[in-house]
Amino acid sequence: MTVLVTEVEFELPKGYVDAEGNLHRDGVMRLATAADEIYPLKDPRVRNWPAYLIVILLSRVVTKLGGVPEINPGVIEGLFSEDLTHLQDLYNRVNGLTPTTLAARCPHCGQEHLVEVTTQGG
Questions:
Q1: Which residues contact 43 (CB under 8 A, 6 or more apart)?
Q2: What is the C-alpha to C-alpha distance for residues 35 and 41, in angstroms, rounded to an integer?
Q3: What pLDDT is recorded for position 72?
Q4: I need a labelling partner for 28 at 20 to 30 A (CA). Which of 83, 100, 106, 110 fits?
Q5: How much is the pLDDT for 117?
Q6: For the chain, which ranges sit under pLDDT 50?
Q7: How much is the pTM?
Q8: Residue 61: which residues within 8 A CB-CB, separation 6 or more?
Q9: Taking the CA atoms of the chain, what radius of gyration do you get in angstroms?
Q10: Which residues lie across from 17 on neighbouring strands?
């Protein structure tokens, strides 16, 4: 019998500092569902600024971060850049969204180059 692992534990490189100055580094991320990837596209913050998509995605799938009572977009916005990148990479790995490299030919010079195609988790 195969068991599907739907949650992974993580440790942030730097950690989230809450309003009281407490540091939170350990957390849990669950696998993303179709709804996690679709519903944020309707969010006006994502429509006005597509780069905000990862903030919404992570706020939906990070289920625990130290003693933080609720993970919401504000918490994800408060992460240090290194921690955001760490969670983004983890999101892509656990959801099977690793970047793909494709060969592409330049229309101007005709030379072939390798191009990385990123996924929605970006």
A1: 52, 56
A2: 10
A3: 97
A4: 100
A5: 59
A6: 119-122
A7: 0.78
A8: 29, 30, 31, 32, 36, 91
A9: 17
A10: 23
